[in-house]
Design a protein that fits this description.
- This protein is an alpha+beta fold.
- The chain has two domains: 34 residues, no CATH class; 94 residues, GMP Synthetase, Chain A, domain 3 (2-Layer Sandwich).
- The chain is built from four helices and six strands.
- It has a three-stranded antiparallel sheet with strand order 1-2-3.
- The chain is elongated.
- It starts with a strand and ends with a strand.
- Pfam families: OsmC.
- InterPro entries: KH_dom-like_a/b (IPR015946), OsmC/Ohr_fam (IPR003718), OsmC/Ohrsf (IPR036102), OsmC_Ohr_Peroxiredoxin (IPR052707), Peroxiredoxin_OsmC (IPR019904).
- This is OsmC family peroxiredoxin.
């Protein structure tokens, strides 16, 4: 299985702008630029897109781990915070922090935490990222 995303950029780094799109069309002509990446202006940026993708990947992987352990979640809510910073002269993603709130009737804390940790390690995006990934979890019944 292969999926594609496309980015188009015009201009220099600080004055230019770009658009991103996905093969499915769910993202179509979404703007991004230096200012939306580094100064919180309107538009998207690669880090928030990566965060959304990582949160989705982890949550789907966790749903599979929970099912394998006999747990049926009512809901799983994951936020991925991607930290971009300067290391020397270059920018680098220094970490990703996953924050999970899970509503799983009847689940034991230990089994839930084991499934979440396994999902963090086995999520395909976690595997491809060359950065420190942390996880906080909260189980509500």
């Amino acid at each position: 299985m292969k999926r594609t995303g496309t980015a188009v950029w015009s201009g220099d780094l600080k004055g230019g702008s770009g658009r991103v799109a996905t093969e499915s069309g769910i993202l179509d002509n979404v703007s991004y630029c230096y200012h939306s990446r580094f100064e919180h202006d309107a538009g998207s940026n690669p880090e928030e897109l990566l965060g959304a993708a990582h949160a989705a990947c982890f949550t789907m992987t966790l749903a599979g781990e929970l099912a394998a352990a006999g747990m049926k979640p009512r809901s799983l809510i994951t936020t991925a915070t991607v930290s971009l910073g300067k290391v020397g002269d270059d920018f680098q993603i220094g970490s990703v922090h996953l924050n999970l709130i899970a509503f799983i009737p009847g689940a034991s804390q230990a089994a839930f935490e084991q499934a979440a940790l396994k999902a963090k390690l086995e999520c395909p995006l976690s595997r491809v990222l060359n950065t420190h990934i942390t996880l906080d979890v909260r189980l509500d019944h």
